[in-house]
Every structure is written in structure tokens, then in C-alpha cells.
Amino acid sequence: MFFSGSLATAIKIECIVEQTYGQWWQSRHRTMLRGVLAKTFRLVGYTIQYGCIAHCAFEYVGGVVMCSGPSMEPTIQNSDIVFAENLSRHFYGIQRGDIVIAKSPSDPKSNICKRVIGLEGDKILTNSPSDFFKSHSYVPTGHVWLEGDNLQNSTDSRYYGPIPYGLIRGRIFFKIWPLSDFGFLRDSPNGHRFSDD
């Protein structure tokens, strides 16, 4: 009798221990799951927050750009890395002689890097390399005239005409790479004519 009573007590104690351990484990499991979910949501929140800040910085302040193609040689070589600021375009601060990044009028998925030759109302010498006679044109309101420094190897406003000011993405003013050319960009090396009266 004593033996069966102590066995029953032992079984009860074991059941209570198992039940308590099970509750503890479930509680611990829920706590761990809550902690993981909280950390995950925090990480997602920070990622979205910093992503928005980075987007605004690149869209409104500026960013680093790698240039490709020969159209701006010798001022900007293929694979040069430059800094483009975007504040000038928002405040209509683009001037003749500035080098800008703009959406290509013929391919909106790509960007072009050209020098501003004329602003709205300017009279521009518009002959392309294939033209025999020189002609002039006025840049319409809300547009700019862009050309590459390497006139013999540049597809620019001489081919597709003036582009809307809204296509300008930023103004390049500082060269980062190569280090031998590190610094502010200078005026056009080939004596570009900015307007022709």
C-alpha cells in the first residue's frame, strides 16, 4: 500500500514537473519568437528609414557617378568617377559651361553627360559635323542646348535638338577618380562657344 501510494505521488510529481517544464518551454519559446520578430521588424524599419534618407540625398543633394564614353574627352575620360550635385537643377542654377547629367532624349533609361552650351533664348550655331553651311537656332523656353567637349565623337543637341530642362538630373563639378585629376572641373579645354550673337 505504501509502495503504490509513493508511486502515485512520484507519478504526480513527474506530471507536475513535465507540465511545468512544458509551460516554461512554451513561454520561453514565445519570448524568443517575440524577440526575433521585434528585431526583424526593427531591422526592416531601419532599412526603410535609411533607404528613404539615402534616396532623398541622392535625388535632391547629389551622388557619385561613373562616366562612360568618349563624348566629354579630354575633360572627363571613360571610367572617371565624379560627384554630381542636384541642388542647382532644383533652384534653376544651371549656367552656360556647366557639365550636366541628363536623361537621354532618345533613350529615357540611360543618362548622358554633356556641357551646357545654351540656355533658353540663346542663339546657337547649330551645324552638325555633316552640315556644310552654318545655321543658327534659338533655344526655346524651358530647354537647354547640350554638346560634348569631344565634338567629333558626341551625339548631342546638334543631332536631337534642345532638350527640356526637366531632363537634367544634376551638375558635375568635382572629379573624384583618378586621383591624379582629383578636384574641381575647369572650363571647356577646346574653347567651346557658349552662344553666338
TrEMBL record:
Enzyme Commission no: 3.4.21.-
GO molecular function list: serine-type endopeptidase activity
GO CC annotation: mitochondrial inner membrane peptidase complex
Subcellular location: Mitochondrion inner membrane
Pfam entry (one): Peptidase_S26
Domain Peptidase S26, first and last residues per copy: 48-125, 133-177
InterPro entries: LexA/Signal_pep-like_sf, Mito_IMP1_subunit, Pept_S26A_signal_pept_1, Peptidase_S26
Keywords: Hydrolase, Membrane, Mitochondrion, Mitochondrion inner membrane, Protease
GO annotation, biological process: protein processing involved in protein targeting to mitochondrion; signal peptide processing
The organism's place on the tree of life at top rank: Eukaryota
Active-site residues from the entry: 71, 114
Family indicated by similarity: Belongs to the peptidase S26 family. IMP1 subfamily.
Functional description taken from the UniProt entry: Catalyzes the removal of transit peptides required for the targeting of proteins from the mitochondrial matrix, across the inner membrane, into the inter-membrane space. Known to process the nuclear encoded protein DIABLO.
Quaternary structure and partners: Heterodimer of 2 subunits, IMMPL1 and IMMPL2.
Name of the protein this chain belongs to: Mitochondrial inner membrane protease subunit
Record lineage: Eukaryota, Metazoa, Chordata, Craniata, Vertebrata
